[in-house]
Write a structure and sequence with these properties.
Radius of gyration: 30 Å
Distance between the termini: 45 Å
Number of domains: 6
CATH topology of the largest domain: Mannitol-specific EII, Chain A
Number of helices: 29
Strand order of the largest sheet: 7-6-8-9
Strand content: 5-15%
Length: 670
């Protein structure tokens, strides 16, 4: 099915990502269009999918739209195609990116490229083609490739053979699922194979050997490496070979991965296609190393080269020093972090292999990510950004690898382990039924909620007069009204019985035990500024840097850091449909969460519109539990419509309600 408009791509992605019915209003928000446009587009898209026997879009009365699958196999391929296109076209119009892909393919498959021929093929003016060339130069530069002028209108790509192959594989892999293209480039495609069965055979042989080894690689690498193997034959036929020095050859030969690469090269299916020279086997070793999927916690370090583990550990120690004083530092000091430390080391080792044997600065056109990055909460994503920037400093290389999403999801998981500050309740129980019944009441409560209870004592009714009620938080009774005369919160045991919901139990008994000190601080820190001129978001953040920085040097550094983090977070920020940035505490020296509501939507990266901007600065020395509360409050602002209006009406009440809802969800989940 050919998807020609970004709006249609966003609608389909929204439908595919939704776990249930999704309304026209929600789809309009996701696609930056009106509900009227959505209602016009849905029948068209449904008709196209039905024609190709993929699926149909059903409208459920008062609920929204759902996708009904017609052919599971076709639907699975279509869903993957949409996911790939969403990654490829998230920032630029489909037509623009299709032209760019054709131009890049021309440069990577031809010795010389004529701009006049490109203008004719793509129906572009001279000025338009030269404008597109700016992006082409940028993309190729991330692979250390340059475009050189041969004379007249002819140009060519200059760079190492290894880098040319990497760029070619990345571009080819953006077409894995054969989505319809306006400008197919046959010359580029036959560089890899003339018959796709060749690719399938090599891929199956490659994966069969890996399955019997101690090596695991990422799913996207399971396609990219066989694609690379297909490309090698045509490059060798053109006399384009890989060059390696002796030190690099020696290091690669010492690895377990080299032994696996040798087995792959000797496989009958591979040998029938070509005989791999020694340097090509070593290059295959580099690709396997660079695309390792490592989990040291569950799989240990079997098959990993000792020298690489030592080097990774040294970098990790540097990174820990770099993150000190930054947001999330307190998370690294918690006891349970030790349990997750091997996961952090695993992710870092994958990056180490990537920048050691490949590159982490490449512009990645397509990745596989089944998780929705927009659902990752803000502070874990910021912590991932801090980790990536610390790794950049330690390694001396730019990191634009999609592993940031894995870091963020790991920090999200860690933050969920953090408990909210809670003062356990001191309970007293009383009943006219006698002590045995009363003690059973207590045991029933303790069996379910012991985590929230410090002590529980049983008394007969007549004994209540001797008690010092200041030593207790609540009275549990058997249901008579007489108990409400005591100077203590009285809760009937019936309200704690199994027939009552956890939400009601929370509200009647346990809510007051949660420490509200952080929410009281947030009431002072939070400010909403309505009717703000947002305009271009980058320019707005630059202006805010001068507002919040404690001195001139801090003002400059705030904006420079914003530009640095933008390079890392850009693919995720663009998908949020709202805008948040954190300012470093060392440059502001005060905590704040400020929300700027625009008179008109602000524009980010020329494509994303946002109605408001959140700028936050949090003290990294705060307890991790405070950070968790901050995270949930900010996430509510980003994801729940109408929250900002509630704050404008009554800030204290809105924050109290938000906090109550957060801890209630935590309690009910428990």
């Amino acid at each position: 099915m050919k998807i020609e408009k970004n709006r249609h791509l966003l609608l389909l992605d929204g439908l595919l990502q939704s776990d249930g019915p999704i309304t026209a209003e929600q789809l309009a928000f996701l696609s930056d269009s009106s509900t009227r446009t959505v209602k016009q587009d849905i029948p068209l898209l449904s008709s196209q999918m039905e024609k190709e026997k993929i699926a149909v879009i059903r409208a459920l009365k008062a609920k929204g739209y759902v996708i009904e699958v017609l052919d599971p196999e076709k639907f699975a391929l279509f869903a993957e195609e949409v996911a790939v296109m969403q990654r490829l076209y998230y920032k630029y119009p489909i037509e623009t990116m299709e032209r760019r892909m054709y131009i890049i393919q021309s440069f990577l498959s031809q010795d010389l490229v004529s701009l006049e021929e490109l203008e004719e093929k793509l129906f572009l003016s001279d000025s338009s083609i030269r404008k597109e060339m700016e992006w082409i130069r940028y993309f190729l530069s991330t692979y250390d490739l340059e475009i050189r002028h041969q004379g007249g209108h002819s140009y060519y790509v200059e760079g190492k053979e290894e880098d040319i192959r990497r760029a070619a594989v990345e571009v080819h892999c953006s077409q894995y699922h054969d989505f319809h293209q306006s400008y197919p480039h046959d010359g580029f495609n036959i560089m890899f194979y003339r018959d796709k069965n060749t690719y399938e055979d090599i891929r199956h042989a490659f994966l069969a050997i890996l399955r019997d080894s101690d090596i695991t690689i990422s799913d996207i690498a399971a396609k990219k490496i066989p694609t690379y193997m297909c490309l090698v034959k045509s490059r060798l036929q053109k006399g384009r070979t890989i060059i390696m020095n002796e030190a690099e050859r020696g290091e690669l030969k010492a690895t377990y991965d080299y032994q696996i690469a040798l087995k792959i090269s000797e496989d009958p299916v591979v040998k029938a296609y070509y005989e791999l020279p020694e340097n090509e086997i070593l290059q295959l070793t580099k690709l396997i190393l660079a695309n390792r999927d490592i989990d040291m916690r569950s799989r240990g370090v079997k098959g990993l080269y000792k020298e690489h583990l030592v080097a990774n550990g040294q970098i990790y120690n540097q990174v820990k020093k770099e993150v000190a004083g930054h947001l999330g530092e307190s998370l690294f000091k918690t006891e349970f972090f030790r349990f997750f430390e091997s996961d952090v080391l695993s992710l870092q080792l994958m990056l180490y292999y990537k920048y050691r044997f490949d590159s982490t600065k490449k512009d990645i056109l397509v990745t596989y990510s089944e998780g929705n990055e927009s659902l990752i909460s803000p502070i874990p994503m910021e912590m991932a950004r801090i980790m990536i920037m610390a790794l950049e400093k330690a390694s001396g290389q730019k990191i634009r690898d999609p592993v940031i999403s894995a870091y963020a999801q790991l920090f999200e998981k860690m933050l969920k382990k953090v408990t909210y500050p809670y003062r356990k309740l001191r309970l007293v129980a009383c009943s006219t039924e006698g002590l045995v019944y009363t003690q059973n009441m207590i045991e029933n409560i303790l069996s379910r909620y012991q985590r929230y209870i410090a002590s529980a004592e049983a008394y007969d009714l007549y004994e209540m007069r001797k008690l010092d009620f200041s030593k207790y938080d609540a009275l549990i009774h058997s249901g008579w009204l007489m108990y409400y005369r005591y100077p203590l919160k009285a809760v009937s045991v019936k309200e704690i019985d199994y027939q009552y919901s956890s939400s009601k139990i929370f509200d009647s008994l346990f809510k007051d035990g949660y420490d509200r000190s952080r929410i009281e601080e947030l009431k002072k820190m939070l400010h909403v500024f309505p009717e703000t001129d947002l305009g271009d978001i980058d320019s707005f953040v630059e202006k805010m840097s001068f507002r919040y920085g404690v001195d001139y040097e801090s003002e400059i550094r705030l904006y420079e850091e914003y530009k640095e983090k933008k390079e890392i977070l850009d693919p995720y920020l663009t998908r949020l449909h709202s805008f948040l940035t954190f300012f470093d505490y060392q440059y502001c020296r005060r905590e704040f969460v400020d929300i700027y509501v625009g008179k008109e939507p602000g524009i980010y990266n020329e494509t994303m519109k946002t109605d408001f901007v959140i700028i936050a600065c949090l003290n990294p020395n705060n307890p991790i539990s405070s950070l968790k509360i901050d995270n949930h409050i900010i996430q509510i602002f980003l994801q729940v419509d109408g929250t900002i209006n509630k704050v404008l009406e009554d800030k204290d009440k809105a924050l109290d309600e938000m906090f109550d809802r957060i801890v209630e969800i935590n309690f009910v989940g428990y």
